[in-house]
Amino acid sequence: MPGNPTNSPMRILGYCDRPNVRPGEVLRFFVSCDEELGAYQTDIVRLIHGDLDPRGPGYKEQVVQTEVSGRYRARSQPIYPGSYAVVPSRPELALTGGFSIQALIWPTAPNRGPQGIVTKWLEERRAGWGLFIDEAGCVELRLGDGGDAPVRVRTNQPLIGRCWYLIAASFEAKTGVARVHQEPVVFAANAPVSAQATFTGKTSTAERKVDVSLVATAAPLIFAGWTERLQGERAIIAGHYDGKIDRPRISGRPLRREDMWNLVENPSDRDLIGAWDFFDQITMNGVREFSTIADRSGHGLDGRTVNAPVRAVTGYNWSGAEHVFTHAPQQYGAIHFHEDDLHDAGWNADFELTVPPGLRSGIYAARLRAGSEEDYVPFFVLPPKGVATAPIAFLVPTNSYLAYANDHMSVDAELIELATCRPVVLGRQDLHKHIHRELGNSLYDLHSDGSGVCYSGWQRPLLTVRPKYHHSFGHVWQFNADLHLIDWLVAKGFEVDIVTDRDLHDEGVDLLSRYRTVVTGSHPEYTTSAMLDAIEMYLQRGGRLMYMGGNGFYWVTGYNPENPHMIEIRRHGGTEMWTAEPGEHYLGFTGEMGGLWRNRGRAPQKIVGVGFVAQGLDVSSYYRRKPDSFTAGGSWIFEGIGDDELIGAFGLCGGGAAGLELDWYQPSLGSPAHAYLLASSEGHTNFMLEVRENFGTTMPSHGGDAQPNVRADLVYFTTPSDGGVFSTGSIAWCGSLSHNNYENNVSRITENVLRRFSSEGPLPK
Predict the structure, then answer these.
(1) Burial environment of residue 502 by CB neighbours within 10 A (0 to 12, 13 to 18, 19 or more)
(2) What pLDDT is recorded for position 265?
(3) Over the chain (765 residues), what is each successive 10-residue block's mean pLDDT?
């Protein structure tokens, strides 16, 4: 599929191989540009302010002279989405004589059209063999000798979605008898039971004599698709399957049904050619060698997965008694494949940047221009490894950028205009990512089969992580909201180093300990256990943290063991766009329970004093000072501000500093008793709704017009060794910093805190 055809809203797109880079390191860039444009210009720019809102300071960037500046030939590069597993072609897989193929499957879109299950089929030659789902949703055996009309033997019973089946096919070359079989499988009393008729459908078998001489091809063995054509050494895969596959087997002779069932758990038949048990990579720490599938037959037919299908999912024999996949790996022997999975766009690199040794830490981008066409590829330059070049670190929430990357909520989410209280307005990035679903999904989307998207990676164009992007919600969000803060830091003359979530996960407290103060972005929602450990230790050792947003430290997040810039979540127990399947609440990457940190005893209140309480995308409001703001311990934060001033009754994010998503001070969840509750927001509408994890049943009046819990709390408290935490409790806070040429009470409060936090003097207690 092309990444940017001529009629697309965007005719030039790019990405880089990772978000974080240090001076002296090499960063690779991948570009697809409509060839009719001829060439494109590349420049490296430092990004300062990315919001085009005319009420704000306007777009700001600075061109940086580097070795990559110049013109490059335009070339269009395709993206091939869809996950599958591949085993290289081997003589054992020719199967020109008798054979049997079998698998347990849980199809999620059986009526979508033809799909490959276990195939060594080359469509461009109409040759090979395979076990398929056909156009009618029935199981099909396909045999081809290179002629125009391959042999197709099918059952007459369409598969039912989200039910387990044993499907199988056999062929005897000497007699020409081809047979295909499907039977529903239910699991009862800890043993698989099949029957001629169950509530999941009927068993169906078809058998006939065929005239075909199978032709061996160079096509690889594919699970969850088939080979459309061979492009050099690369197989182009089509016919992607949606659903789970468990325990595929291939035998060198036709098998009876009883023999097939025996092979499911005992792959030791004398004629066994290949037997893949996907639970073999499960360890106590998750799924190691995540892209590996191992053959247990002894023939060494190991393979790999492509485009990251979901692992650590329940198999055909999951009893429901165990929900931790590492405790019962044999019950998690399935892989869930999707036609729209994307791990890596797979483009060829166009240019490489060696980051100049003297380049200051900051947020940068490769600016790509071809005539009126334009794209930006952001990246984050850290200081040299092991040192700090400023007293302040800005912790860039790259995990959260990935979570929302290329989201389709403005088109796919039900009642989105009711939730935002405005018509959806789609910009060119929105139009492009909605038309071109091959760019992959966000963690807020559903796959085309209705299952939730739990993986997101950096190696693809991320059109929502761009300067000048205005989310169709009606506000800037994530990346550009954080550039509000970067712009303010520059305007106020603060020297700041940039570090990312991945750096914090890898280096831990040692990274933070180099800085007097750490400042977060507006929405650091997705954090790993190592990140939380590091922040807590930093605060215990006297570090100072400014939490500049809302809904932070919320979802348990894990990194892929093979790809440091791919994350995983499993949603359950929170305010969420989808919920993980039963038995699939644990992260496959790490083996730990997913969901909310709050439900694992690590509510954000324990770290930053406030935690998520409400969300609403209509309008933002203001804060009113509380008694603690007039005490000796809290009044320094409000120096230069009148006693009766409303805090943040203005801003680029909904017209106020308290909005979008709000956090509250709540001692029962761990907010420190000695914290100063400085101010609370008020005046929210009934579209600002309390999060569902706060109540056990549905009740009326959960909106901001009637529920006192719906508020953002401004909080300050000290930690051991003269450390401290200041929390704004609102995503919209940073959008108010530039109001009135940066002279306003939100800006003054933030400056009072940051100058005090980054100084050598003690903090007020």
Answers:
(1) buried
(2) 92
(3) 64 98 98 97 98 96 97 97 97 90 98 97 96 98 92 95 96 94 77 51 91 91 98 94 98 95 92 96 93 96 98 95 96 98 97 96 98 97 97 98 95 77 84 95 97 98 96 87 98 98 98 98 98 98 98 98 96 93 97 97 98 94 98 97 96 96 98 98 93 78 75 97 97 98 98 96 88
CB-CB contact of 80 with 398 (8 Å): no
Question: What's the CA gap between 290 and 562, in Å, rounded?
Answer: 7
Claim to verify: residue 333 and residue 256 sit in the same structural domain = yes
Q: Are residues 72 and 101 in the same domain?
A: no
| Length of the chain as a residue count | 765
Alpha-helix residue ranges (DSSP H) falling in 377-528: 398-404, 409-412, 416-420, 428-435, 479-491, 501-507, 509-512
| Residues 6 or more apart in contact with residue 702 via CB below 8 angstroms | 689, 690, 695, 710
Alpha-carbon distance 317 to 333, whole Å? 9
Q: Is residue 697 part of a domain?
A: no
Asked whether residue 24 falls in the same domain as residue 140, the answer is no
Tell me how many domains the chain contains: 2
Cβ neighbour number for residue 762 with a 10 Å cutoff: 10
Residue 412 lies in a domain: no
Answering whether pTM is above 0.85, one says yes
Radius of gyration of the chain (CA): 28
Residue 338 φ/ψ region, left for φ over 0, alpha for ψ in the -120 to 50 degree band, beta for the rest: beta
Q: H-type helices in 678-725, by residue range?
A: none
In terms of DSSP bridges, do strands 544-547 and 517-520 run parallel, antiparallel, or are they unpaired?
A: parallel
C-beta atoms surrounding 541 within 10 Å: 14
Give the three-state DSSP class for 291: coil
Same domain, 94 and 234: yes
Amino acid at 295: D
pLDDT at 197: 46
- For residue 321, count CB atoms less than 10 angstroms from its CB and return exposed for 0-12, middle for 13-18, buried for 19 or more: exposed
- For residue 386, the SS3 value is coil
Residues spanned by the domain of 130: 84-337
Please report, for residues 7, 37, 124, 340, 711, the alpha-carbon distance to residue 11 in angstroms, rounded to integers and kept in the order given.
8, 8, 30, 22, 43
Query: Which pair of tokens denotes residue 450?
Result: 């209705």
SS3 call for 708: coil
CATH of the domain at 322: 2.60.120.200
